[in-house]
Amino acid sequence: MPTLPRRRLHGLHHRLGAQPGEQEGHGSRRCAHPAVDFLHQFPSLRLISGQPHHVPGHLGQARSPMKIRSALSALALPCVLACAGPLESPAFESSSTASIGDAVQNGDCVTQQVSAVAPGSGAGYPAPTAFPVNAGWEYEVTVQGTYFANDGLYADARYSSRFNGPWQDTPAHYESSGPTLLDLQFWDGAASAFVSPNWGAFSSSHTYSTRWTAASGQLRVRINDDYAGNNSGSLSVTVCHVLDHPSCPGDVQGPTLILHDSSAMTLECGLETWADPGAEAWDVACTPLEVHRYNAGSDASGPGPQTFAEGTYPVQYIAWNSVGTTVSAIRSVQVDDRRPPVLTLKGPANVTHTCGSPWVDPGVEAMDACYGDVTPAVRKTGEVNGWAAGTYQVVYEVTDSGGNSATPVTRTVQVARCPWE
């Protein structure tokens, strides 16, 4: 069976049943042993074995610390996972191959060339190209290429609202030896499950992309071109399993909880907002468990991290199964002021003052993203003698409560034209 390159998203999962520190394939580690206590120590991550060890990060980077609380049960052993972060778009590498007949999963991608086929008169259908997928999983479909016309005929782009429905004509389009007009269609399982917007005509070399959650075990793709005999080319269709968030490890033997993003986060006071990355939890056989949040901002137990006040805010996640076995994790959110205030002169930086009267300082304004108006904390050095000709400099400085100092600003005052000179 032919094989095609696949791009794999590397991830980390923890499994039960091995000795502490035992490696389980690339980027994984097992956890076991019933002696579990509530762990308060940062920054080391301690799994339920009670033995401290470093957790490898995503693609080889170190993981952030996590604070864990585990409640034991004689029936199941919970395990808490922390995922490297932040998790954004999947990081792929071309390292493995897979049969086209395999289901696209585990962050892999499969690419196939799809050629347009003329449906003929009436309700003929080109044969679809199949991509096996897993129902309930999120996928991204990308189509790229140009299909060229070799004639000056009218071509009817056609579409179908459902896989086995009749073809319907769209208005005719004139071709002049350029890219042809094609119709690209996707079906997910049942005839009534029409996937994605109909991208319609491929009028030039473009890349089209969309995401969807699979409804069944097969994605089918076809392209219609009424004048396929006169045209040439094919389109590259790539189907990727999206892993924006961690997936169930697959061998769960008790409640397991995974934090999305890092377990220790830092937000810039006054500039960044708190958005809870959330968590996922499963029981045996990857049965999803509801994750309860505390002090996440979306629950009644607390307002969540306040990004206009420096401090450390714990956000807790707890899940439990039907027999009461629980697992939990705490995300530590540090709101820190690392930006200095901004000092702005009021009035010009260079001033000429007529000798014989006191000079009035127009002052400065100092604003801080975290603490707001800090003008009262401004320090001024230098004085101006309005009765003595000369050049004077006044320097303004300010430091906020976080210890961040603004760039000093200077005003130059020229005292001139004294009556007695």
From TrEMBL:
- Kindly give the InterPro entries that the UniProt entry links to this protein: Cry22Aa_Ig-like (IPR032179), Ig-like_fold (IPR013783)
Gene3D superfamilies linked: Immunoglobulins
Q: Where is the composition biased (Basic residues)?
A: 1-16
Q: Where is the Pesticidal crystal protein Cry22Aa Ig-like domain?
A: 343-415
- Coiled-coil spans in chain: none
Q: Where is this region: Disordered?
A: 1-29
Q: What is this protein called?
A: Pesticidal crystal protein Cry22Aa Ig-like domain-containing protein
Name its species: Stigmatella aurantiaca (strain DW4/3-1)
